[in-house]
Write a structure and sequence with these properties.
It is built from 4 helices and 8 strands. Strands 1, 2, 3, 4, 5 and 6 form a 6-stranded antiparallel beta sheet that branches. A two-stranded antiparallel ribbon has the order 7-8. Helix 1 packs antiparallel against helix 2 and helix 1 runs antiparallel to helix 4.
Length: 183
């Protein structure tokens, strides 16, 4: 019995998995770089009034362009929420939305201060929402930290755009710990 057909199938699956990994990594890099640009734009504002106006204009556009972001926050250097924009019509925090203050935010802020340009927190499971991470980018101007741009991110929302070209013509299911994230 020849192993060639089995090896061909395994090689095909390995190539497909590599494509999925690259697509997901690229999508996450795009989100991180965009969040970093938004943070730098916020930090470059001449005064607080201009910064607030820019956030009010920019945040809804980012939420539209990146549906995996359920909320965007401008956070002061000391961790206080200064401005928030939520995904969806109600623009109210969803039940179960992870708190943006606390250990995850403080740990991410420490990593950004140590030189990482964009930080993704560990994923936490949020009831009724699913896997959730925080993305944080520093907003610096004149070599001074002005604040942070924070995105509440549902990684499962990245899969449809990342996998659309790979899933064409064949079923694809992505699961994490037995829970289907994408089908």
């Amino acid at each position: 019995m020849s192993m060639s057909p089995v090896l061909d199938v395994l090689q095909s699956h390995a190539q497909r998995l590599q494509g999925i990994t690259v697509a997901f990594r690229d999508q996450m890099q795009i989100r991180g770089e965009s969040l970093q640009r938004l943070a730098l734009r916020q930090a470059a504002a001449l005064d607080e009034s201009e910064r607030q106006r820019m956030f009010t204009l920019d945040a809804p556009r980012y939420l539209r362009d990146f549906p995996a972001f359920s909320a965007l926050y401008w956070v002061s250097p000391d961790g206080a929420i200064r401005q928030r924009e939520m995904q969806g019509a109600s623009r109210q925090p969803r039940e179960g939305e992870p708190p943006v203050v606390g250990a995850q935010l403080q740990a991410a802020m420490a990593r950004v201060r140590s030189g990482e340009p964009v930080v993704m927190s560990p994923t936490v499971e949020v009831a009724g929402v699913g896997p959730t991470t925080l993305l944080l980018a520093a907003g610096e101007s004149d070599q001074q930290l002005r604040g942070y741009m924070l995105a509440v991110h549902q990684p499962g929302q990245v899969f449809p755009s990342s996998l659309a070209f790979l899933a064409a013509g064949s079923p694809m299911v992505v699961a994490r710990d037995g829970e289907v994230i994408y089908a």
